[in-house]
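Please produce the structure of this protein holding nickel (II) ion.
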Amino acid sequence: MTDASEAYENGAMDNGPVNLTTALASFDDVYSPRIVARMNDYDVRIAHALGEHVWHVHEDTDEFFLVLDGQFDVAVRDADGSETTVVLRTGDTYVVPKGIEHKPSSPGGSILMFEPSGTSSTGDRYKGEIPDHVDSTTGHALT
Ligand code: NI
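Below is the modeled complex.
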């Protein structure tokens, strides 16, 4: 019999079950997504969130968010430049449509994302400087 914690210790990418609580506890970095599963050509990624991300755009893909813990806000900018902030709490889901400028921020929380493998955490383009606490990445393996 294999339980989730044993499978996790054996490596998350080997198709065994992954426990999200254990996975989140295995790293501290904020805005540095870890890939917990791949299906077809999509990644399931998790990340801790704290502070401001950076305004960015994914030109060719929508981006799915599920708040696992805490609060996660997504500021979105319409084509006319007006901004709206979507406030998400534990259990909330939200999809940022492709081509929409967005900037996540959080007073503290953790999220799950679903997006095509290879999608950059800072988009195809971004505005301004990437803060030091934001990792520009296509996701890291769980270790
Ligand atoms: Ni994004």
